[in-house]
Amino acid sequence: MVHMHVAQLLFVASVDESRKLVCQAPGCGRAIAKAVHVIRDSTGTIRVIGSGCYGRLSGHEEATRHGATIAGFDGRRLTPEERALMIADTAAFVADVEARLAAEREAKSLAADRISAEAQRLRGRAAGSIDRHPQPASQWQSPLSDGTERMFTRDRTRARDSLAQFRAQQARQAARIAMQRRPELSTFSVDVVADALVQAKADYIATGHRMDAPDARRVIEAGAIAVLSARDSKHGDR
């Protein structure tokens, strides 16, 4: 095997046995489904590696000790959409997830800083008020509760918007992949196809079907085509 050094273990996941990935360790190329290690090597390249190859790469012990950096992905099975995005552009998929988590961490940090600053300001104001005009605690503590709740609401909104943006990026990437597989979709714009896929997926799940079913992608894409055909016949939306 050609020498490769593991600089960072991003996460470990699995995929459906019927839709295995290919190990990208030099000289390997075997199909992998369980304990799929997504790493960043010493050159900064994102690679998908099987567990056997991962254990033979230099630096893997230290990378494992430091643990995965992408929370929520460790060990779980990727959805068909996540798998498709990883295959299409693994580095872009990882970057999108890291950006979303970074935005969430930043929102939490900003919330903590604002709460601390607001609490300090109100404590100073309350102390001065007590010195001049003693009041019941409930009268000068209520602004802190109101301000904290407003800050939490704003930060929850930012986190929700960040997640929505990431999901929109996922939908557009899934649409591009579907348009490559289905020529009948190529006459529509990416955003229109993405919206149709989201609607078809919602309908698919609402009928009790599972996203890890072998034919989930095919059924959802067919549903999206039906949605677009019906929409086009009414509005000519392309």
What key attributes describe this structure?
238 residues, mainly alpha
According to DSSP, the number of beta strands is 5
Low-confidence stretches: 137-145
Measured distance between first and last alpha carbons: 50 Å
Mean pLDDT across every amino acid position:
77
Any overview of this molecule?
- By secondary structure, the protein is mainly alpha-helical.
- It has helices at 51-54, 60-66, 80-88, 90-132, 137-181, 190-206, 216-235, and strands spanning 6-13, 21-22, 31-32, 36-41, 46-49.
- It has a three-stranded antiparallel beta sheet. A two-stranded antiparallel sheet has the order 2-3.
- α3 (80-88) crosses α5 (137-181), α4 (90-132) packs antiparallel against α5 (137-181) and α6 (190-206) packs across α7.
- The radius of gyration is 24 Å and the shape is flat.
- It starts with 5 loop residues before the first strand and ends with a helix.
How is this fold's topology laid out?
Blueprint: E1 6-13, E2 21-22, E3 31-32, E4 36-41, E5 46-49, H1 51-54, H2 60-66, H3 80-88, H4 90-132, H5 137-181, H6 190-206, H7 216-235
Antiparallel strand pairs: 1-4, 2-3, 4-5
Helix pairs in contact: 3-4, 3-5, 4-5, 5-6, 6-7
Short description:
With 238 residues, this protein is mainly alpha-helical.
